[in-house]
Design a protein that fits this description.
There is one protein chain. This protein is mainly alpha-helical. The chain has one domain. It is built from 10 helices and no strands.
């Protein structure tokens, strides 16, 4: 079986590799139509835009060739699109923040195990199971985080940042290729597989933790504003 996003592109044709899967386009159109009806429509529309970039643009095909682009793809899902959805459809309360954190972190780590990752890239059904579980568990976590009191929300945002950074560090310092799916796909791009893998780790280790750091800073700012207001 081939990847949902097709065969790995080459440097001379990647910009032509748009994904116009009619089912995907209908789903995104329905999501956009639903987004404009929400009170926080700008967040919802932004999340649909991010999903369009990840699945419709040539980024989809590039992620088949380069694991580093796949890392960008996953960061966009769990750290950009997911919190935007959580802001668009906020939770009324947080009762399962710890469980949501464990679920989202475990989902991210499991899908980066070589056996699961390679299977997902070779089977379209498993590929969508990977994408939907990554996005769904991340949305759950961010909704719980935004609705939680300041102390637990700041604690779990730091934990989320730490686990993303830890996964990135493990990939960065790995000395051997881990993923069979990218055994030859990186070479046309002038990258050895290990170098591409290390670049993916850096993506998750540095820019991948920024949304969690911003969330932590915003939580701290909210606490400070409340404290200043009661002083």
């Amino acid at each position: 079986m081939t990847s949902y996003c097709g065969a790995p592109p080459h440097p001379y044709d990647w910009f032509e590799r748009w994904n116009f899967d009619p089912v995907l386009l209908v789903v995104l159109a329905v999501a956009a139509a639903a987004a404009v009806r929400l009170h926080h429509s700008r967040f919802a529309l932004a999340s649909v835009g991010i999903l369009a970039v990840t699945f419709v643009s040539p980024l989809c095909a590039l992620s088949v060739a380069l694991f580093s682009v796949r890392a960008v793809h996953h960061v966009l899902l769990v750290a950009i699109a997911a919190p935007l959805v959580a802001l668009a459809v906020p939770s009324r309360g947080s009762r399962h923040l710890g469980i949501a954190f464990v679920a989202s972190a475990a989902t991210l780590w499991v899908w980066h195990l070589p056996a699961f990752y390679d299977r997902a890239l070779g089977d379209s059904t498993i590929y969508w199971v990977m994408q939907l579980t990554l996005l769904g568990s991340a949305i759950w976590f961010w909704r719980e985080l935004f609705a939680a009191p300041p102390v637990p929300s700041s604690m779990f945002s730091i934990l989320a940042m730490a686990q993303m950074g830890m996964l990135g560090a493990l990939l960065t310092f790995a000395r051997t290729p881990l993923y069979g799916s990218h055994a030859a796909s990186t070479l046309p791009w002038g990258l050895e597989q290990v170098a591409d893998q290390q670049l993916a780790g850096l993506v998750m280790w540095v820019p991948g933790v920024i949304p969690y750091a911003l969330a932590t800073a915003l939580i701290a700012r909210r606490v400070w504003v409340r404290a200043a207001g009661t002083a």
